[in-house]
Structure formats: structure tokens, C-alpha cells
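Supplementary Methods S3. Complex input for the iron/sulfur cluster-bound model.
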Amino acid sequence: MIREILQNQEILLNIKNLTLNFNTDRGEITALDGIELRLYKNESLGLVGETGCGKSVTALSIMRLIPVPPGKIGQGEILFDGKDLLKIPETEMRRTRGGKISMIFQEPSTSLNPVFKVGDQILEAVQLHQRVDKMTAKNKAVQMLERVGMPDPKDIINRYPHELSGGMQQRIMIAMALSSNPKLLIADEPTTALDVTTQAQILDLINELKKDIISSMLLITHDLGIVAEICDRVAVMYTGNIIEQAGLRALFKTPLHPYTQGLLNAIPNMNAPKGELGFIPGTIPDLTKLPQGCKFNPRCPQQMEICLKKRPGLREVREDHFVACHLYSK
Ligand code: SF4
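Predicted complex, serialized as C-alpha cells:
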């Protein structure tokens, strides 16, 4: 179990033993299998892993946006600022969602309402979470657009989403998400849908906003390069579990889990002999047919006998470095 306090840092988000199941046509699957995750105040935590490992459903669980059914939280706690988000009434959760915790998604065009001008949408977000009159809200909307680097914000507020590029739409989404001064920003693959140049601009913007407006952030991505640029700590997910969590430097310098080692080896490296690119053999297992023992065992180059029988739990093996792997069992 992860320690309660690390180096006097205060915990903002503490997910304990969270389990989430879905009923599907092919039977019940476990999307989150007792995850343990913590995020400290004023830090950016990267949540990485391959598609389908449970990153986005973790974010949606925090926001309490998992549709029930087919989803069902089996057990666990999501402690945010000391309160269990799974236990607070829906009215309080509505104030928390978009107020204390904001989220930006991968595809900004599907998050913006196509029939309203972007200014009205930001205005609505401001008025929903702050008790201010319309003029103050409008001024705040213009200010936020300036802050996210939009040229000519007074003109932009009168435009419809389809009149803006993908990069501009994502800047609008960031402005809306931050307009309520949230304690936590969840960014779910915020640059994946954008072209490479725009991706770099949005990443620069997020880094810039981290200096003053973004206090704490959970950044979901499959791209370790983005994590290296933006995050302070990293959690790696595999088939519904956190399998390694550490500070950025420790994770990149001394990755402990064979899966994390494989992910890092797969990053293109100009200095690799003959330009070779590492890869992880096999594919993510079908969640309805998970292997016994460690779920990574069919793909693991360091598999041992115990790995076929017993599933390893997440434990701290170095200071603030947690791993779920029998290689590090005492
Ligand atoms: Fe590999 Fe065993 Fe560690 Fe799983 S527990 S990652 S199979 S060594």
C-alpha cells in the first residue's frame, strides 16, 4: 500500500483499490482491477499505457461519468481533497465536476456544441461555477482566451466551433476547463487528434499554463515523449492495473517493470545500433480471457514460475518507486 505522506507533499487525489466492471455481450470484464493511484498537490502526473489498458475509464470514474449500467464500480475509494467522490450526492458531484475538477478530451470538435458561439459556451462555463454577472463572465471569457494564446479574442467569441481549426478548438476547451480555477485538470490525450505542429503548440501552452493557472494535472497519454516534457511523476497502466509509479527521472532512468522497460525501449532513438527499434512481443490480452498470475506473463521476457500462478501487487521497492512484479518480491 502506498504511504500516506511523501516528503510533506499533500495528496490531492488518492484512488484506493478501485474496481470497475462492465457487462458486455461476451460476459463481464474487469476494466479497473483494484487500482492504486495518487496525485500530489501542485504536480502533474502522467498516466500512460497502451490503448484499452484503462486510462480513460480511470478519468471517467474520477468524474463519475461511467454509465451505470453497463459499468459498475465494485469496490474502492476515490478520495479528492479528502472526500470520497463515490459517496458524495450527485448535486455536490455536479459542482465538483467542471468546478473543482475539469477535464479536456482528445477530440475538441465533439466536446464543443456546434450550434452555439464559442463565447457563449465559455460564458456558460464561467457562470455555472462562479457567481458573477454576465458582463464579468464575458470579460473573464475574453481574458481566458487571451491567456490561452487566441488571437483577437473579442472576434473569436462571436465565432462558431466549425469556423476554428482543431488547435484553436482545443485552446477554447482549455480556456473553458480552466475558467473555474479547478484544483485538478484531467487532460485525456489532449493532442492526439491534432497535427504534429499543432500538438507541439498545445504542449507548449500546457507547459506555460502550468506556471500559474494549472495547479495539479492528471495527463493521460500513450506517448512517453509527452510525459517527459510535461509531467513530474508517472504511473504506468496495464490491463486495468497500475504496474509502476515513480518520479519522472526515476522511471526513465531506472524502469523496474519489464513492461515499462519495453515501452521505453520502443521509443525511437537516433543512437540505437543500426537504428533498431525495440518492441514488446505479443499483444494486450483479451479482458475476457486474462492469463492466470501476472497478466503480463505471456509477453514477459523475464517470466518465472511464480508469475504463472500469483498476481503481483503494487509495492514500494525504492523511495517513491512502486512496482507490481515478482522480480522485486522479498
Ligand atoms: Fe514478468 Fe513475472 Fe514481473 Fe510479470 S511478475 S512482469 S511475468 S517477471
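Residues 267 and 277 are 7 Å apart (CA to CA). Residues 257-258, 294, 296-297, 300, 302-304, 307, 312, 325-327 surround iron/sulfur cluster (CB under 6 Å).
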